[in-house]
Amino acid sequence: MNWNDLMSSQRLGEDFKPKPHPEGNLRSEFEADYDRIIFSRPFRNLQDKTQVFPLPDQDFVHTRLTHSLEVSSVGRSLGKNAGARILHKYPTLENLTPSDFGAVVGAAALAHDVGNPPFGHSGETAISDFFSHHHMGQQLKQEMTKEEWEDLTHFEGNAQGFRLLTSNQRQGLKLTKATLAAFTKYPCYAAFEGRDKSRKSQKKYGFFQSESNIFKEMAESVGLISLTEHVWARHPLAFLVEAADDICYSIIDLEDGFGLGLVSYVEARDFLAAILKEKYMPDKLEKIPSDKEKIGVLRAVAIQVLIEESTEVFLSHEEEMLAGTFDKAITDLIPSASVLAEISKFSIRHLYQSRQVLEKEAAGFEVIDGLLEAFVLATYNKYYRKESFTGRFKSVFGLLPQDIIYKLDHEAKTPYESMLLITDYISGMTDRSAIKLFRILKGISIN
Question: What predicted TM-score, i.e. pTM, was given to this entire model?
């Protein structure tokens, strides 16, 4: 791989290759990606989607939107730091600036969660479980390829995100191929059986069968290394997107846990101090009046330390990334890796398995299962078993948004394509809108 191709400003669906910095325009093509994402509906919906903890009245608990903004900020810093050193290393690179690298990572990081359904990662499991275990799933299985069936029974927010970013809704976002490639942490498909467990990029998958040709076009255009059919090595900047996410959820979840009273001040302080190392100054810290402010200051410095450490690891393995031979999480190799591992173990015990999180997950399973049952049955009976399309199913089907109904009528040609449109609708919901519709369908609430 080479950086000239990897930093392609060509937009998906366009033949010409614009320069990153159009003449007379101070905004680069990559900065335009950021703007297109932040004004998009999938991104706006993140404001009412759970990050880890249920959405309470307190202002210190993060939603998917605030998390994504913070990951983007960290990603931009990582990209600019790395870009400056890359441009110094390769002086023949033209028309690129450190800010271009920062803009690509920042935009990809901003979008990294747009495909996540309501109720956090439990929402992905709920969708997968419905198709795996509901009696309707067994009917659908007979009408799909093995690859299509794997998409539904192993529903993946990363693949859903790529689908949203490349869908052609009213011209679509048409992001640059550099940003799309950096967005994709898992450049393989769901049914890939030859996964190498030592490669972090093959832990999950990054695109559905419905977008496989689009992904192939993008991957070939930016020069990703093909490992086998429909499986590629990561774009190097995807490692920085992943690192930004790892840094933020490790540190910010700990801070949220402190705010909710699930983590003591001493526990949070000591974890953050271990990351700061010689930068930890307890005497200065004690001059800050409130514990909340103290943790806030420590969190800010800890993130900066992790950015610096991650940048150095990225640069030390940059040539291996270009060769497609490096495939590990950067944050597993930084000096603070052992501290992050301890934070992760602590968070699993005290945060992710807390009662309020488990209650949210349990409710999410009920809501998503109920919504899928209603809309999958209504849709299947309307298009593929018309004699069973009774009045009940007609009423439920009529609740679908008009754009989904239009696509079902005019674009979906198979049960697989129809089911993806239903999962588009369900996964695009916010937590509150999903609960509200579930209550209506169950007769608990009537508008």
Answer: 0.92
